[in-house]
Amino acid sequence: RKKKVPCRSGVELQKLVDKAKRKANEGKVASYIPALQLENPEDLSCAILFPNNDCISAGDIEKKFTLQSISKIISLAYALIDLGEEHVFHKVGMEPTGDPFNSIIKLETESQAKPLNPMINAGALAITSLIKGKDANEKFTNLLQFVRKLAGDESIGFNREVAISEFNTSHLNRSLCFFMKNSGVIIGDVEEIMEVYTKQCAIEMNCLTLARIGYIFAFDGKDPETNEQLIPKSVARICKTFMVTCGMYNASGEFAIKIGIPAKSGVSGGIMGSVPGRFGIGIFGPALNEIGNSHTGLTLLEYLAEKYELSMF
Ligand code: GLN
């Protein structure tokens, strides 16, 4: 099943993309995952998917990128559907943090080392550890099938080079896992969790497909083409809430004030936006700010927020 949503070039959108691009030199591509260093900081693309398959785009929308932390919202949805709220929130909390996404400090200070929320690395690793399957391969395939369903595209896969590059350099994420294993939050083999997690972060798509997934969350879990309920409404609501409170890491408060929509970023430079009841947004701009959010992507969203009154508050 590969559906193609036609997307027309947005003239206004392209102007805003070109303007935001001028800020590319203020950001830097991620380098702690060596394979991500190869990206071009000047790239900036955006797609916005409206109801009735109306779609506008700007920039190179064929360009694929890896989801990185954006995958955390999808694995959370998957775990909530598969295991239910009680099980999931027994493992991870619901509170935002002012610490960086990969911080380990709270695992020692919070009782029982339960990660604060599923959007920081510790919480996302705990969620990934819950995915069912006989081995890493089956677990990852189960998650990938879910992503393909949301994407409406059976050809969605992962970037092996990026996955291996992260797997080989994930000393901090391994440490988070061992910490949580020590306290019983994680059960199971750390290497296996790392394999599933790094492949999950390396799932690849373009900004049009990302806009489609953003749309599904914006429209209470419904498929933009068939209206089929792909995610239960209650799960879509929980995910959107985490996107507001924790989606932009420790800059989520500032983002809520300046832009005011549920969104999730990744260190590849991707941002998925879900404007409730209005549209889904997919952005790729690999020039990052110090926090690890796309600098050009955020700049573009600020322009869009102003022009189209995006804020839901
Ligand atoms: N794979 C990345 C990591 O675990 C995802 C983090 C991110 O996008 N912020 O470090």
TrEMBL record:
GO terms for molecular function: glutaminase activity. The keyword Hydrolase applies. Its EC number is 3.5.1.2. Coiled coil: none annotated. Substrate binds at residues 69, 121, 166, 173, 197, 249, 267. InterPro entries: Beta-lactam/transpept-like, Glutaminase. Keywords: Acetylation, Hydrolase. It catalyses: L-glutamine + H2O = L-glutamate + NH4(+). Pfam families: Glutaminase. GO terms for biological process: glutamate biosynthetic process; L-glutamine catabolic process. SUPFAM superfamilies: beta-lactamase/transpeptidase-like. Belongs to the glutaminase family. PANTHER family: GLUTAMINASE (PTHR12544). Homotetramer. This is Glutaminase. It comes from Sutcliffiella cohnii. The lineage of its organism: Bacteria, Bacillati, Bacillota, Bacilli, Bacillales. The gene is glsA.
